[in-house]
Design brief:
This protein has about 900 residues and is an alpha/beta fold. It contains 34 helices and 23 strands. The strands form 6 sheets. It has a 6-stranded mixed sheet with strand order 3-2-1-4-5-6.
Length: about 900
């Protein structure tokens, strides 16, 4: 019997989105490839396991389906599609096609309808059809030769539902009854109205008893009084509900069955895409094409790890000077305690359950033994919760590889494969059961051994030690320990301030909605709909006669840059931009905030990402504090919420002043900038005076603003077009400003040209302290690609040096606080600013230490200046 597998692409995309939500895969370009990797891996494994004869993947089309026409509120209550999901759809389609698999997508119909029609029309005595989806709606399509193939949860096996299994599950007599069952219980996710108060189980029981929805209404008097009332209320919309949940089976298929025949002779396109997205562990599926397209892996060394006792592993670690650790906890939070601890030397490993982890404290607290692992700062926090300090030099393999090659993947499995020739078992890609950082993850699968991984980590650390940049031991490793303490200490947040701010923003959103609708006399306008906004601005108001609808989406582009270009043509455009800014601040940053507050201590424990950005800057997640617009007027309210941990405490802020401009002055050697900083004058006013050829005292506020934009923009290679947009000048005026800038500061032009020339010659640029950024596209034939690399060649030494300086400062300040026995703590680093939770009696000393360390951590040809202040919250302190 031949087999046709039809995959619900959107369902699988969301499965992978949640599977990697907590531990995303970031490639060397800083792109999250989690969905692409998880989807592709599942697809290839499915092919290998089930050996289908025919295969196709169906996706929902953009713009909704016929159900939205029937019922505009259909799916109207769903939250916005995550950006990662939207961004994954196009590259996923390319990957699927490169594997010789057709992509099915039909305008006006959901993937369900395409799959339903294919299943109904193609199944028969010689062909079984398997619909790969977890969606219960597909149960209505099951028949003698049609099955639902449900991807397994939490490492479990995939489940196949036929007629027998489906009917036993719901207690019904036929799959055709699923439609009535779905209509009764409705669907909150799709906003399908059902019978209020009747869920899946109740609906199934009623269908099992009466056979159909019509029969239930025919025997309404037999139901309980409450059920009679519920069904009577629902009767007006039940026909609609039934239509909405019924999957189409009669649409004309976009491809013939023969076009779905599986062809596993993957060509160079697949190999190229796997290389592009760095799917190293999936290359084995591609055969000869992949071997021709990618470099061969390192030859495998003998790797036969053996389980042993704790004593044996400890003795081996002492002899080798290195111990690898793999701690596993029930959640990702800093206060989680390890449930299992795997320790490894090069060849031996042991596993300790929670109640025996304390036995490992002698070797873990032995400072003469290096500790190898991945994300050691989080694991050290878990061990601290168990009363164990992770002493000795930390060899975090992710961080070590990041220093060597910041823009390559730091995935441990991939590194072991490419550097050691060791293939480790990987975790299954399964949906995260909870979105809360503090919830425990339920155990639903057998615990796999992490012993081989521990031994591989030990070997990987030794391998990465070879030619390791000295910045690891002098900067990144000690900083990692400082960050671990900061993550565990957390920062106190005033929840009442957040709630008040949230309510204020919600009111502002509603008021702005009302005002915009009044301005354009459109009481039903959905301001959050790009489609409706595009039609308003470009069809009804005709603000841009040249505006065209995109081919892919069939609607006008209404992104920020587009609206800024027409903002002076109608006041509603600025109002829409403001509405979007407020709504984004509310939904992206403010509303999620309470979910990040730990129930243990009422603090936020952000995660500092030390091995993520190409320039060396720290970033943060859960929540992302780096991207909160704290410098705007509304953003100031966010600062007000960050408070000291005790009622009498104070927040201390220590902020570098114009550090990147000072670094540019040092690197370029420009005498004007150097002198301005040495004299302590207003550098932007001084720049304006130089550009416009006027005395400093005659510089206007507008001229100073233009000079400030030029100082920062030109430093990062801004074009005349970009400067014109920012300053609202003509392109000719912007070009004249740039030309005047370089005439006034020829040393800066020389620095920029020199940085680009060095990158072309060596393939990389580096910071003042030696951090490298490799630029493989610096000699690209494509002008746009090459221009990006040239901009990076200029800004990487500046941004990277700034990052290096504040990292050294953080380590130095933390050491001084510890040496002097102060109880005040450094709690946050955001851009060029450090925040401290300080006791009143220690505030003066904390500020002295911060200034002393931060201003003297490196010596430049201009002074580093730090501005320090304190207050009852971050706003007062800044």
């Amino acid at each position: 019997m031949a087999k046709l597998f039809l995959i619900d692409g959107h369902a699988l995309v969301f499965k992978m989105y949640y599977a990697f939500l907590r531990r995303p895969m970031i490639n060397t370009k800083g792109v999250d490839t989690s969905i692409l990797y998880g989807f592709t891996k599942y697809l290839l494994e499915l092919i290998g396991r089930e050996q289908p004869d025919y295969l196709a993947v169906a996706f929902d089309p953009p713009g909704g389906s016929f159900r939205n026409t029937l019922y505009p509120e259909y799916k109207g209550t769903r939250p916005p599609t995550p950006e990662l999901v939207k961004e994954a759809l196009e590259p996923l389609s390319a990957i699927v096609r490169s594997l010789n698999i057709p992509v099915l997508m039909m305008s006006g119909f959901e993937a369900d309808d395409v799959i339903g029609s294919a299943a109904a029309q193609l199944n028969g005595s010689s062909l079984d059809v398997y619909m790969v989806t977890p969606d219960k709606d597909y149960g209505q399509l099951i028949g003698p030769h049609v099955f639902q193939y449900k991807p397994g949860k939490s490492g479990g096996e995939d489940e196949i539902l036929g007629e027998k299994e489906l009917c036993e599950k719901w207690g019904i007599s036929s799959p055709s009854q699923v439609v009535d069952m779905l209509a009764i219980c409705g669907d909150t996710a799709d906003n399908v109205p059902g019978v209020k108060g009747v869920g899946e189980v109740g609906a199934a029981k009623l269908i099992a008893r009466y056979g159909s929805l019509e029969s239930i209404y025919g025997h309404l008097s037999e139901l309980s009084p409450r059920q009679q009332e519920q069904f009577a209320e629902a009767r007006p919309h039940m026909e609609l509900s039934k239509t909405l949940v019924t999957i189409k089976t009669d649409i004309e298929l976009p491809v013939a069955l023969e076009q779905m025949r599986l062809d596993s002779n993957y060509g160079a396109d697949a190999a190229a895409l796997f290389e592009l997205y760095e799917f190293a562990s999936l290359r084995r599926y591609l055969g000869a094409a992949a071997k021709a397209a990618v470099q061969a892996s390192a030859p495998a060394e003998a790797f036969e790890p053996t389980e042993a006792t704790l004593d044996a592993v400890s003795r081996a670690a002492l002899a080798e000077g290195r111990l690898a650790i793999v701690a596993e906890a029930a959640s990702e939070g800093v206060f989680a305690k390890p449930e299992r601890l795997t320790l490894g030397s090069r060849d031996l490993w042991c596993v300790l359950p929670a109640d025996e982890i304390g036995k490992a404290s002698p070797i873990l607290e032995n400072a003469s033994v290096k500790k190898a692992g991945a994300d050691l700062k989080r694991q050290s926090s878990w061990l601290k919760g168990a009363g164990i300090a992770l002493e000795g030099c930390w060899e975090d393999v992710v961080l070590m590889h990041y220093l060597k090659d910041p823009e390559r993947s730091h995935d441990v499995t991939q590194l072991c494969h490419t550097l050691l020739g060791i293939q480790l078992e990987q975790d299954s890609a399964e949906p995260a059961p909870s979105l809360s950082l503090f919830d425990d993850v339920p155990e639903e699968e057998p615990v796999r051994s992490r012993g081989p991984e521990a031994c591989a980590l030990c070997r990987l650390a030794a391998k990465l030690r070879e030619d390791l940049p000295q910045l690891y031991d002098s900067m990144e490793e000690p900083l990692s320990k400082v960050l671990a303490d900061m993550e565990r200490d957390g920062v106190k947040v005033d929840l009442q301030v957040i709630r008040s701010f949230t309510e204020g923003l919600r009111s502002e959103v509603l008021e702005r909605e009302r005002h915009i609708r009044e301005m354009v006399n459109e009481p039903e306008l959905n301001i959050s709909s790009p489609k409706q906004i595009g039609e308003l601005l470009f069809d009804r108001l005709a603000l841009d006669p040249k505006a065209k609808k995109s081919v892919s989406k069939g609607q006008y582009t209404t992104d920020e840059s587009t609206l800024l270009e027409i903002a002076d043509r109608h006041p509603v455009v600025s109002e829409i931009l403001e509405f979007r800014a407020v709504k984004k601040l509310l939904s992206t940053y403010i509303e999620p905030f309470p979910g990040y507050i730990s129930p243990v201590d009422g603090r936020i424990h952000t995660t500092f990402n030390q091995a993520l950005t190409a320039t060396g800057r720290l970033s943060s997640s859960n929540p992302n504090l780096q991207n909160i617009p704290v410098r705007t007027e509304r953003g100031k309210e966010i600062r007000k919420a960050f408070i000291p941990g005790t009622p009498e405490g104070l927040i201390v802020s220590a902020d570098y002043s114009q550090i990147e401009l000072r670094i540019m002055a040092h690197l370029s050697g420009d005498e004007h900038l150097l002198q301005a900083f040495r004299d302590g004058v207003d550098v932007h006013a001084s720049t304006a005076a130089k550009i416009f050829g006027i005395p400093v005292e005659e510089v206007t506020r507008e001229q100073r603003g233009m000079a400030k934009t030029a100082n920062f923009g030109i430093m990062y290679g801004i074009s005349a077009f970009g400067l014109a947009e920012r300053l609202h000048l003509s392109r000719k005026e912007a070009k004249a400003l740039i030309d005047g800038y370089f005439e006034s500061f020829p040393a800066i032009r020389s620095f920029i040209e020199g940085a680009i020339a060095q990158a072309r010659e060596k393939g990389y640029v580096q910071t003042l302290l030696g951090r490298r950024r490799y630029l493989p596209d610096i000699n690209a034939h494509n002008a746009n690609v090459r221009a990006v690399a040239e901009r990076n060649a200029v800004n990487a030494p500046i941004q990277g040096t700034s990052a290096d300086i504040i990292k050294l400062a953080m380590t130095g300040v933390a050491q001084r606080l510890r040496e002097e026995g102060l109880r005040s703590r450094m709690v946050l680093q955001i851009h060029d600013e450090l925040l401290f939770d300080a006791l009143p009696s220690e505030v003066e000393r904390v500020e002295q230490i911060a200034v002393e360390v931060m201003e003297n951590v490196v010596k430049l040809s201009v002074p580093l200046t730090v501005e320090c202040s304190h207050g009852k919250n971050w706003l007062e302190a800044h």
